[in-house]
Every structure is written in structure tokens, then in C-alpha cells.
Specification:
The structure is a single chain. Helix 2 packs across helix 3 and helix 5 packs across helix 6. The chain is built from six helices and ten strands, in the order ββαβαββαββαβαββα. The strands form two sheets. Strands 1-6-7-8-10-9 form a six-stranded antiparallel beta sheet, with helices on both faces. Strands 2-3-5-4 form a four-stranded antiparallel beta sheet, with helices on one face. With about 220 residues, it is an alpha+beta fold. The protein folds into two domains: about 100 residues, Alpha-Beta Plaits, CATH 3.30.70; about 100 residues, BMC (bacterial microcompartment) domain (Alpha-Beta Plaits, 2-Layer Sandwich).
Length: about 220
């Protein structure tokens, strides 16, 4: 059904509580500051980016590595690869564990894609981050605590949706990822007050659904 949630599947979660300095450095951590790593793979990259940001709100961890895999979850390199590898780093195991648990709760209860047509062949991510953590705020060039509409869809649907979102609400574009991204989608981060971000996300989702319903206009 249209706009039914497509829940992310966490494929693997591992901890390196005493990581080798070379591994820390290779994945963007600072051995002088970090000692432990928490790693997640998942079949939804954008949901995982939101979840990693959530980790920074609950624990003094840093997101040191987060990369989408080319072509998306439908073409993984292995059974546990999914669409993304995310890595958080902390000074001790307890910090990393708290961060991992916050990220996993977010993936279970908050961030997910939605079906945008009856066949389930179009997916949309009209997510609103009510209060940015340290990770996504830095990536977007915004302040910790700002609200942000995190919008993702396939190329045509996303482009029409971005225009609709920007016209429907008092929001500005913090960053737009034109197609193709690594997963052959397109994305935009729009910012404003919480009400405006919610209105933008609703307009985006509605536009994506409409393009799926009437692809040639």
C-alpha cells in the first residue's frame, strides 16, 4: 500500500573495543582520542545515516565512517553487506555501546523508507530530523539542534519532489545530492523550523506518489 513503511533490516553489528591504531586511523578515528569502534551494516543507507546521528545525541561518540555502497541493497557484495557500513568511535566500550543502542533503536522505531506506489517499486524517504546531532549537523553545515527534512527518492520523483517541498514550506536547501548517488537515488537536506520541515516532507512525499501515479505528464 502507498506510504506503508519499509522497515530497515540491520544485517550485522560488531564491536572492536580495543581496535588496532592502524584500523582506527584507516576508518577516520583518532587513536589519541578513540579506542573502541562500533560497526553496523544495514539494507537502508539513509535510515542508517539518521541512526548514526542519533548515536551522537546519546553518547560522546563520533561518526568516523559512513559510506553507501554502489548500486544499493539489491546488489550487495555479500550477505551481510547491505547498503552501508557505518562506524562510530569512542574512548571506551561503554560509550560505543550506548551509541550503538541508540542507533539500533532509531532503526527499529524511527527512520525508514516508505512505499510510494501500490507495486512497491518506488521508495521514498520523507524523514524529519527534529533536532540534529553532531554528525548530520556538521555534514549539512547546520547547527546542532536544528531541524532538517531529509528527503530521498529515485531521480525523477525526487527532482519533482524537491521543487514541491521548497515551494510548500519556509525552508532552504542546506544540501542537494543530484542523481545518481551511490545507490542511484537523489537526496536533499532542507532546513527551517520544525513545522516547516514537516510540511516540506509531506509535500515531497505527495509529489513522489503523484509522479508514480502519473509518470508522463
Amino acid at each position: 500500500m502507498i506510504l506503508e513503511p519499509i522497515y530497515p533490516e540491520v544485517l550485522s553489528v560488531r564491536r572492536l573495543y580495543d581496535a588496532h591504531p592502524a584500523v582506527l586511523e584507516s576508518y577516520g578515528a583518532d587513536p589519541a582520542k578513540h579506542r573502541s569502534l562500533g560497526l553496523i551494516t544495514c539494507d537502508q543507507d539513509d535510515s542508517t545515516y539518521v541512526a548514526l546521528d542519533e548515536a551522537t545525541k546519546h553518547s560522546p561518540v563520533d561518526v568516523v565512517f559512513a559510506r553507501s555502497f554502489y548500486a544499493g541493497a539489491g546488489h550487495p557484495s555479500g550477505r551481510l553487506s547491505g547498503e552501508i557500513l557505518g562506524v562510530i568511535a569512542g574512548a571506551d566500550p561503554d560509550e560505543v555501546e550506548e551509541g550503538l543502542q541508540a542507533a539500533l533503536r532509531c532503526l527499529e522505531h524511527d527512520a525508514c523508507f516508505y512505499s510510494a506506489d501500490d507495486s512497491g517499486s518506488i521508495a521514498v524517504f520523507p524523514h524529519v530530523v527534529t533536532s540534529l546531532g553532531h554528525y548530520l549537523s556538521a555534514e549539512a553545515g547546520l547547527n546542532v539542534g536544528d531541524s532538517m527534512a531529509y528527503l530521498v527518492a529515485p531521480p525523477m520523483e525526487a527532482t519533482i519532489g524537491f521543487d514541491a517541498a521548497l515551494k510548500a514550506a519556509d525552508v532552504t536547501a542546506a544540501k542537494v545530492f543530484t542523481p545518481p548517488t551511490e545507490t542511484n537515488y537523489a537526496a536533499a537536506w532542507l532546513t527551517g523550523d520544525l513545522y516547516s520541515c514537516q510540511a516540506a516532507a509531506e509535500a515531497f512525499a505527495a509529489a513522489v506518489v503523484e509522479v508514480g501515479r502519473i509518470p508522463k505528464l
